[in-house]
User: What shape does this take?
Amino acid sequence: MGKKDMNESDQLFERAKKVSPGGVHSPVRSFKGMDRAPVFFKSAEGCHLTSVENRRYVDFCMSFGPLILGHRDPEVEEAVREMIGTAWTFGACEPYSLELAEWLTAELPWVQKLRFVSSGTEAVMSALRVARAATGRKKILKFEGCYHGHVDSLLVKAGSGLAGASASSSAGVSEEAVHHTLVAALDDEEEVRRVFSEHGRDIAAVIIEPLPANFGLLPQRAEYLKFLRDICTQHGSLLIFDEVISGFRVALGGMAEVTGLRPDLVCYGKILGGGFPVGCYGGRADLMDQVAPLGPVYQAGTLSANPVGMRAGLVTLKKMKSRNLWSEINGRAGRFGADLKAGFAKHNLPFDVSVESSLFWIHGKQKEPIRRVDRLPADQSTGFKKLFLGCLDRGIYLAPNAYEVGFLSAAHGDEVLSQVAAQVIEVASELEKTTRG
Ligand SMILES: *Cc1c(COP(=O)(O)O)cnc(C)c1O
Assistant: This one.
């Protein structure tokens, strides 16, 4: 393809590949497996993105979760502008993080103390360190299909052999780094019991996404989550909720609020920074008091509690709360999901959709509820790729991966959503015709 046949995004991608691995700064942005070069975007507002070619897209990726009020919410933007005109970073004490920390600890009873960091990965990494220090134990139990950022010790897949054994899932992560990580399947009490009967005295913590949303959408049974809480308590292990996606999305208090369960430690990110790089870990005061300078667990960050992120986060959360936007967004998501479901069924199309709060996931038809990785539809990748490309051509931007969920925001109105639902059905119907014809 000659340079003049390429659109501007293609040209930028060619340049990007020369200076960054795969042309991207995070792998899922690359459209890998989608048979097309990624679209480059230059601006965003509300639920819309504008590409460098000046084409408008309805955005369902929403930066993978942070933008629950939509792109550049006017009230958040005003707070950000004001902060930028006041200070950017101090590396010293300031009142902005205090205000957000006080608001969070007042709203979330299971967060007695917290520490701000700059990403979800950092939050998880630090929470594990605290758990190991506080218990004097080494092992961590995680679940297949849950993602907790790119922390070395959690980049694992289930290994063969012993219950709970794991193997590294990334080159560059040593056997030693994952040696103390145990892996269990989701939705299976028996397997967790087996792991605890063998390793219970060595398990510092169990970490779970209480609403797993990084490998499709795998909602867990309430009684299963309760079981995890109980077995941790029985064995003196800590329960860590990774609410980096679900926190401030399924409800103000995330899944801890929805389930009424109390994690010992919890990790937040994404929405917490209102579109800026902010994460935090927090929980029981006695555990958090292990952290330096008070305790022996070292953890630090040059840009931690960055004032711009602190203001964006606080304004976002206060706006969500004062207008109770969760019920509004979740209601719209429910109607959007119902429209899609009805359309897929009416035309007998091989797709279905799962909706949890304002998250949705389009997947191949499956008879039983999908709660674990081995229940994922077999042809998910091929089916999704075609749907993704058809949507892209119609100006609908889904996350470019069959196992990423879609995110709605307060800026996705009913009208846009019902138009998009009709278009998605249209794309799926055309695919079905080509396949049958
Ligand atoms: C996104 C995510 C992370 C990692 O957060 P980053 O800010 O990308 O480092 C961790 N856990 C969960 C559940 C996530 O969804």
